[in-house]
């Protein structure tokens, strides 16, 4: 079963920084954001150097149970494994735009924000969520972060509480004709003809992982590329290939793995022990 360890190993051993060139070599004409997605999916699938599109698709169909679209999270799901959300930003200080989907510490099958193809891709109720964030400048990958939602985001109820409070407040306004919607609100028949309507949508965002975890990790600005991965101890030791990663890191002067403590997203007074993996070149 493929996992985050596979992806890190494949990137350390096959770093591809020129995303436009990488996309072109795989006979794909994509935007830089799509090229980043393709590279990350190939990293998980072990198909970074596979140029035969048919073989690549065959491998992906075994590795992933779901390959999503840009309008509904997540971007992909590992078969019997984690969900993955891939985001591109252009600077170290850029926030992640999550649009109508609030931050997720885990992905639930009963979430109204996922589509039926995702919900029915396999038998599942809850998935751990990996946020993969790439800093891309002029088509070149400068930095990459892997972090689990359980270390990055608060419990879903925190965001649901805010969303529901706003939704109920909007719905309580008198003299407006509201309609049922998954958004924060929809007002029908705004004008005298009754032909216009107003949609009220939430636009969620979150600080990127490099800013969020700057108290435990600093990029090496003298290097062309930096990778950071944060994995909680329980999750890390649940993978049967973590020793493969440790062997590679021990033989690479540009890579390191250490135990660090981070703030619990639900209670910053509580600290969690995680594995911090970094690689630069």
Strand and helix layout:
Layout: H1 4-13, H2 19-25, H3 32-45, H4 53-63, E1 64-69, E2 72-78, E3 83-89, E4 96-99, E5 106-108, H5 116-119, E6 126-137, E7 140-148, H6 149-152, H7 156-171, E8 177-178, E9 185-188, E10 198-200, E11 204-206, H8 209-212, E12 226-232, H9 233-238, H10 242-250, E13 255-264, E14 267-280
Parallel strand pairs: 3-6, 7-12
Antiparallel strand pairs: 1-2, 2-3, 4-11, 5-6, 6-7, 8-9, 9-10, 12-14, 13-14
Helix pairs in contact: 1-3, 1-10, 2-3, 3-4
Number of helices: 10
Spatial extent as radius of gyration: 20 Å
Q: Could you say which overall geometry the principal axes of the C-alpha atoms support?
A: globular
Using DSSP, what is the number of strands?
A: 14
End-to-end distance, in Å?
28 Å
Average pLDDT reading? 92
Strand content: 25-35%
Largest sheet: 9 strands, mixed
Which parts are unreliable, with pLDDT below 50 for 5 consecutive residues or more? none
Structural class designation: alpha+beta
Helix content: 25-40%
Please trace the helix and strand order, writing H or E for each element. HHHHEEEEEHEEHHEEEEHEHHEE
Structure description:
The protein has 281 residues and is of the alpha+beta class. 30% of the residues lie in helices and 32% in strands. The protein contains ten helices and 14 strands. It has helices spanning 4-13, 19-25, 32-45, 53-63, 116-119, 149-152, 156-171, 209-212, 233-238, 242-250, and strands spanning 64-69, 72-78, 83-89, 96-99, 106-108, 126-137, 140-148, 177-178, 185-188, 198-200, 204-206, 226-232, 255-264, 267-280. The strands form three sheets. Strands 1, 2, 3, 5, 6, 7, 12, 13 and 14 form a nine-stranded mixed sheet that branches. α1 (4-13) packs across α3. The protein is globular and about 70 Å long.
């Amino acid at each position: 079963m493929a996992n985050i360890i596979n992806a890190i190993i494949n990137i350390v051993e096959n770093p591809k920084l020129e995303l436009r060139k990488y996309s072109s070599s795989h006979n794909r004409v994509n935007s830089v954001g799509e090229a980043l997605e393709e590279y990350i999916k190939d990293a998980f699938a072990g198909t970074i150097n596979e140029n035969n599109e048919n073989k690549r698709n065959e491998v992906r169909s075994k590795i992933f149970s779901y390959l999503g679209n840009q309008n509904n999270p997540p971007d992909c799901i590992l078969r019997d494994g984690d969900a993955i959300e891939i985001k591109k930003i252009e600077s170290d200080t850029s926030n992640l735009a999550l649009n109508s989907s609030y931050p997720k510490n885990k992905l639930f099958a009963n979430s109204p924000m996922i589509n039926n193809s995702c919900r029915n891709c396999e038998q599942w109720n809850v998935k751990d969520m990996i946020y993969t964030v790439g800093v891309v400048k002029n088509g070149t990958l400068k930095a990459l972060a892997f972090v689990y939602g359980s270390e990055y985001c608060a419990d879903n109820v925190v965001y649901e509480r805010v969303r529901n409070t706003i939704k109920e407040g909007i719905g309580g306004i008198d003299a407006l004709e509201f309609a049922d919607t998954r958004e924060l609100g929809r007002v029908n028949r705004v004008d005298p003809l009754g032909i216009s309507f107003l949609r009220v949508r939430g636009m969620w965002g979150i600080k990127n992982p490099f800013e969020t975890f700057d108290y435990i990790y600093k990029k090496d600005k003298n290097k062309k590329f930096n990778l950071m991965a944060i994995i909680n101890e329980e999750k890390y030791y649940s993978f049967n290939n973590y020793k493969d990663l440790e062997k590679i890191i021990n033989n690479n002067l540009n890579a390191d793995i250490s135990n660090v403590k981070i703030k619990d997203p639900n209670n910053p007074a509580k600290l969690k022990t995680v594995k911090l993996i970094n690689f630069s070149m």
